[in-house]
Amino acid sequence: MAIKLQDAIRQVETLSQDEQYALVAAIVEKLRVKAKQEVKQAAYSWKAAIGTVPFPLTGEDAQAWVTRSRSEGEEEREQQWRR
């Protein structure tokens, strides 16, 4: 253990049991808040991916893909209605 930690433990031992519980609660809350902030900072930003993939990624234009996907979906729905 580091000397500072040993000193802190000695100081904590001088506190009453209620004060020790309050200290532990304060430390846990501080760690919880810090962890939450780290998760927010670690969240991925899609803007960071802009320009990292060559166009077109799949060899198909985005608008052509959207048009084809909609057409396929429409055909599938029509087949379901005919049944």
Question: Could you explain how this protein is built, in words?
Answer:
The model has no long low-confidence stretch (mean pLDDT 84). It contains three helices and no strands. The chain has helices spanning 3-13, 17-42, 62-82. With 83 residues, it is an all-alpha fold.
The whole-number mean of residue pLDDT values reads 84
The description of the largest β-sheet is: none
Structural class of the helices, strands and pairings? Answer: mainly alpha
Helix content: 55-70%
Shape: elongated
In terms of per-residue confidence, which ranges show pLDDT below 50 for 5 or more consecutive residues?
none
Strand content: under 5%
Number of helices: 3
What letter string, H or E per element, gives the SSE order?
A: HHH
Radius of gyration: 29 Å
Number of strand elements = 0
**Ends distance:** 74 Å
Question: Could you write a compact summary of the structure shown?
Answer:
This protein has 83 residues and is an all-alpha fold.
Task: Give keywords.
single chain, 83 residues, 3 helices, 70% helix, mainly alpha
Topology overview:
Elements: H1 3-13, H2 17-42, H3 62-82
